[in-house]
Amino acid sequence: MAMKGNSGENRTRGSMSLFIVVGLCCFFYILGAWQRSGFGKGDSIALEITKKTDCSILSNLNYETHHGGDAGRVDDSESTVHEFKPCDDRYIDYTPCQDQMRAMLFPRKNMNYRERHCPPPEEKLHCLIPAPKGYANPFRWPQSRDFVPYANAPYKSLTVEKAVQNWIQYEGNVFRFPGGGTQFPQGADAYIDELASVIPMDNGMVRTALDTGCGVASWGAYLFKKNVITMSFAPRDSHEAQVQFALERGVPAIIGVLGTIKLPYPARAFDMAHCSRCLIPWSANDGMYMMEVDRVLRPGGYWILSGPPINWRNNYQRWQRPVRELEEEQKKIEEIAKLLCWEKKQEKGETAVWQKRINYDYCQEQDSQPTMCESTYQEDVWYKKMEACVTPYPETTGLDKVVGGPWKSFPERLNAVAFRISSGSIPGITSETFQEDNRSWKKHVNAYKRINKILDSGRYRNIMDMNAGLGSFAAALESPKLWVMNVMPTIAEKDTLGVIYERGLIGIYHDWCEAFSTYPRTYDLIHANGIFSLYKDKCSAEDILLEMDRILRPEGAVIFREQVDVLTKVKKIVHGMRWNTKIVDHEDGPLVSEKILFAVKRYWVAGETNTTSSHQTG
Asked: What is the pLDDT of residues 245-277, one digit of tens each?
């Protein structure tokens, strides 16, 4: 009798599964027909994925066949789904950890009030940040470098304040970015070419750059021509929305400042660093800010300082600053650079270039020696106080040896074994595991492309990997059409962000229990591999997903990679966030318990109840 009962129950479940599959296929067919009919603009990106995905893949969603227990069942019940409401319109550009009102509660000394100050748990928003009315998907790169839809960041103050410097111009329903800057009002190209006469940017040797106080990030935008990728940062201050403009243009940027805590990057990360009239007091605090640049600069890397006080003799009148003050400021900067053992390569016009020595052996015979930081773990920087001390170089065996190994050009370095791995600096990571990781992610990314066939079409420019590991997801996607912000969770078992930089990629440390240092709607695609398993005992999955929703553009995509039981819970939460979802099997087949959840955020704007209309610019 028991056998008959089970048989009947299985037939019922099989019939129900078939009914669900047929129903979903019919739904997507009708949705597609409606979208093409002209009666509604529709979620065009969701439509594109649906059209290019074989509906028969849904037949593999019967996890119960392959994995016993409740964890293997997909709960399609909508009755228990919590629907998240839109936040008030005043939160359209809300940045939780750089909130302007909260910032005023903190000291102004050393820009402390412009640093990260996140809300306590009881003040976190549990609603969806709306897009502004008229929001449009950004232009595709490289057109996005020069044009941004006005509705996406409707702030005109910079068009007046920086009019003479050619930062930004308002033209009809778009902002135009002529490529100018405070130190290069005629355009970034000529300025960069001048720098390239001193710094090897044209042969791939210089690949990663840091732009401190970046404005609208035109320097980083035009460096892409030389295949240099720039991490730009600026505070959220009176220069309204400068970082938001940078990301709308398709240029990597975060909200940040040189203040009292260390920058969220590993030691020896960047090939060059840049300040173009960035208003950072380099000579203050016993040279602490120059020492922090020294920490994140690779041995052999370059530092560029453009603007006051460089060449003060010829410019003090135009700068409207006292001669003695400018003279003393440049003198202090020169002294700190000498203490750091940097070699001055050039001073021309208002721009000076220094180079960090390839190892510390060059510096042993200096008359004065800097205070060295304690030799604790150099990458432990999250919320750690900045200090006026020099981060020690790793040891080398001679004057001609480069700390971290000889520089490799890009793209060779992308798939070369990083020095941090070959030297055994990261326990458990070997050359073999690195190569295997590379192969695995190439395989994973190829599988992603079979589902989302517009993945590498240029539709997704700003991409984030929330748990980047060795950076192999970004390496597999590498293309001039896109860039990846590789995030290293501060609680990750192995810190491999330094490896990511050695590969010629960029990234940042972050704790996903807090909001990311960016504006809403700044990423086109987010990759979340194992992030909820990593944080399951640390903070709420709901909070992480709401933060993902905040930083994801309307019609942006998310790829989750987790165990099936985790994805089932994630799927239920995001159904209440106006996302469309689809779970698919691992590329190795349905017997693998790890699955992939594809999601697309629907288009909706402030004050709108219809969540299916779409606005496209390119």
From this structure: 999 999 999 999 999 999 999 999 999 999 999
Alpha-carbon distance of 3 to 17, in angstroms, equals 21
199 and 302 Cβ atoms separated by less than 8 Å: yes
Pairing of strands 147-149, 174-176: antiparallel
- Torsion (CA) 305, 306, 307, 309 in degrees, nearest 10: 30
Low-confidence ranges of the chain (pLDDT < 70): 1-79, 159-160, 162-165, 238-240, 375-376, 397-399, 609-618
Report the residue count for the chain. 618
Residue with tokens 């992603």: 448
- DSSP string for 163-193: TTTTS-EEETTEEE--S--TT-TT-HHHHHH
Which tokens belong to 563?
């165990």
**Secondary structure (H, E, C), 352-387:** EEEEECCCHHHHCCCCCCCCECCCCCCCCCCCCECC
Say what the pTM is. 0.87
- CA distances for 596 relative to 440, 442, 477, 486, 560, angstroms: 15, 15, 18, 19, 6
Residue 9: CB atoms within 10 Å: 10
Query: CA–CA separation, 154 vs 27, rounded Å?
Result: 37
DSSP 239: S
* CA max distance for the chain: 100
In this structure, the number of other CB atoms found within 10 A of the CB of residue 383 comes to 14
The backbone torsions φ and ψ at residue 222, rounded to the nearest 5 degrees and listed phi first, read -85, -15
DSSP letters spanning 107-175: --GGGGGGS--PPPGGG---SBPPBPTT--PPPPTTHHHHEEEGGGS---HHHHHTTTTTS-EEETTEE
Q: Are residues 388 and 370 in contact, defined by beta-carbon separation less than 8 angstroms?
A: no
pLDDT of residue 163: 59
Helix (H) or strand (E) holding 271, with range, is strand 270-276
Question: Would the CA dihedral through 376, 379, 385, 388 be positive or negative?
Answer: positive
397 contacts: CB under 8 Å, gap ≥ 6: none
